[in-house]
Design brief:
215 residues, seven-stranded mixed β-sheet, alpha/beta, 40% helix
């Protein structure tokens, strides 16, 4: 068992607690995913955790993969209508594949993206989201104060590094953007900042995301 899988097995019991504590971020992430991935599609999630994001998308066929067996057990209990596994399922045709807040934990991202490319076809769209690396100091302070989920071993890739990892795995970046300038909820303030200032200070926003196809 890898260090990363041990970490997520350990925090699995508290995973949903931290998601509820940071509900504004997760609600915003769900909204973003819904704009990128329509309901009623065949969808695979890599790093599915306890299954909430996948279930939110209301897929026709939905499968989730996670290296933490404890996360998978909880996901099965919460969403028995979906399929969860500790390995990437083979033999399916996917309209969309997505991965959220996972790339920073991959021990060999290029190998993972090569595996993902093998289950993609020419029409599959791969969506990958992550925390903007410029927020790392804030995230580490929040973790010290126990305001967010413990990250464990991780590495924040720059935009250029991330793009290179995709391209070296035979994938093509067709979209790249940032979203959610203020990821915490402050009544009135959060709405105003994210609506009016985010377009101006776009590259400072908390969520960075890529839209990818096969080359």
């Amino acid at each position: 068992m890898s260090e990363v899988s041990k970490h997520f097995d350990f925090i699995a019991k508290d995973y949903d607690f931290y998601k509820k504590r940071n509900w504004f971020y997760y609600q915003s992430l769900k909204k973003l995913l819904k704009t990128l991935i329509p309901s009623g599609k065949n969808v695979l999630e890599i790093g599915c955790g306890t299954g909430d994001l996948l279930a939110t998308l209301k897929p026709k066929v939905g499968k989730g993969m996670d290296i933490s067996s404890n996360m998978i057990k909880i996901a099965h209990q919460k969403y028995p209508q979906l399929f969860f596994s500790i390995k990437i399922p083979k033999g399916d045709s996917w309209d969309y594949i997505f991965m959220c807040d996972v790339i920073e934990h991959l021990e060999n991202p290029q190998k993972t993206f090569l595996e993902i490319s093998k289950v993609m076809n020419e029409n599959t769209i791969f969506v990958c989201t992550m925390a903007n690396p410029i927020w790392e100091p804030v995230l580490m302070i929040a973790e010290k104060l126990k305001l967010k989920m413990p990250e464990g071993k991780h590495y924040r890739h720059s935009s250029e590094e991330t793009r290179f990892l995709f391209e070296s795995a035979g994938l093509k970046v067709v979209g790249h953007d940032f979203r959610l300038l203020l990821p915490i909820y402050i009544p009135i303030v959060s709405g105003l900042i994210n609506k009016y200032l985010e377009p101006i200070f776009n590259r400072l926003a908390f969520i960075e995301y890529f839209v990818i196809t096969k080359s």
